[in-house]
């Protein structure tokens, strides 16, 4: 029945997270510390510019300093790494975010690896990934952490459930699989080479869509009563699942927009505040 459906409202979850952060930011401010997130944008990709602006505005509303570095598209890997190293050395900067994707001539992995682990608030380094695998990361990747935060906020059980993750990127599919595994879910990771994908998705009590293809996950694939978390965002405000079709079978589902996205940004802010607090305790 439709009345049993739960639309997992990410805006509400994000607002709760930001309310909790306000007191922590005020406490740091009283100690003379202004949490600071530095965002680096290389080139002029319109979507990336929008994301960076949204993150900056979210920082401003919470009293977090947002330092924006906009580099030309012709910037080399070496020049980008030099900028990152300057930010690593700047004690006023607590978090560093390199907006993905960078121009194709740049070695993105080398640039990510240049970010100091203490400032890797988006969980993009291999060390951060390894720490996440062991459940030890201060700053797990933001979108995976947002997915877990939504499940927890709505008190949806993870332990013992079969989670099916469609997507295997190093900053989304893989880390969220590890986080679910660390919470005692049984996890199946699917990808473009998976055979019998529809049947596997149909076994999932929890389905995470992170494939980057609009309306890829079909409603007929979804197990009756499954929880569906759509981490995709495609042109036209469309996610990776066919929302209306999946809604008929799922017990709970995130919309796009206003699902995982707002919680991802709130998680980035939380990690920046976490990083600032860690400098106080250091």
From TrEMBL:
One of its GO terms (molecular function) is methylenetetrahydrofolate dehydrogenase (NADP+) activity. Pfam families: THF_DHG_CYH, THF_DHG_CYH_C. GO terms for cellular component: cytosol. It catalyses: (6R)-5,10-methenyltetrahydrofolate + H2O = (6R)-10-formyltetrahydrofolate + H(+); (6R)-5,10-methylene-5,6,7,8-tetrahydrofolate + NADP(+) = (6R)-5,10-methenyltetrahydrofolate + NADPH. Residues 141-277 form the Tetrahydrofolate dehydrogenase/cyclohydrolase NAD(P)-binding domain. Catalyzes the oxidation of 5,10-methylenetetrahydrofolate to 5,10-methenyltetrahydrofolate and then the hydrolysis of 5,10-methenyltetrahydrofolate to 10-formyltetrahydrofolate. Belongs to the tetrahydrofolate dehydrogenase/cyclohydrolase family. This is Bifunctional protein FolD. The gene is folD.
């Amino acid at each position: 029945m439709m009345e049993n459906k739960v639309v997992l409202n990410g805006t509400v979850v994000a607002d709760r997270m930001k309310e909790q952060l306000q007191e922590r930011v005020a406490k740091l401010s009283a100690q003379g510390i202004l949490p600071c997130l530095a965002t680096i944008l290389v080139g002029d990709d319109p979507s990336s510019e929008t994301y960076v602006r949204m993150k900056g505005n979210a920082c401003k509303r919470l009293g977090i300093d947002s330092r924006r570095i906009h580099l030309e598209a012709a910037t080399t890997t070496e020049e980008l790494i030099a900028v990152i190293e300057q930010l690593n050395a700047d004690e006023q900067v607590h978090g560093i975010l390199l907006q993905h994707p960078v121009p194709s001539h740049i070695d993105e992995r080398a640039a990510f690896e240049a970010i100091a682990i203490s400032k890797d608030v988006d969980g993009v380094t291999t060390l951060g990934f390894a720490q996440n695998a062991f459940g030890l990361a201060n700053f797990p990747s933001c979108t995976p952490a947002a997915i877990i935060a939504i499940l927890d906020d709505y008190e949806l059980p993870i332990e013992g459930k079969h989670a099916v993750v469609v997507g295997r990127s190093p900053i989304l599919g893989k880390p969220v699989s590890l986080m679910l595994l660390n919470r005692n879910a049984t996890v199946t990771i699917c990808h473009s080479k998976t055979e019998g994908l529809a049947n596997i998705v149909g076994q999932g009590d929890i389905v995470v869509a992170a494939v980057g293809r609009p309306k890829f996950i079909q409603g007929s694939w979804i197990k009756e009563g499954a929880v569906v978390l759509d981490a995709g965002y495609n042109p036209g405000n469309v996610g990776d699942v066919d929302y209306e079709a999946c809604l008929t079978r799922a017990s709970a589902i995130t919309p796009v927009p206003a699902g995982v996205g707002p919680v991802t940004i709130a998680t980035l802010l939380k990690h920046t505040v976490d990083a600032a607090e860690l400098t106080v305790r250091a």
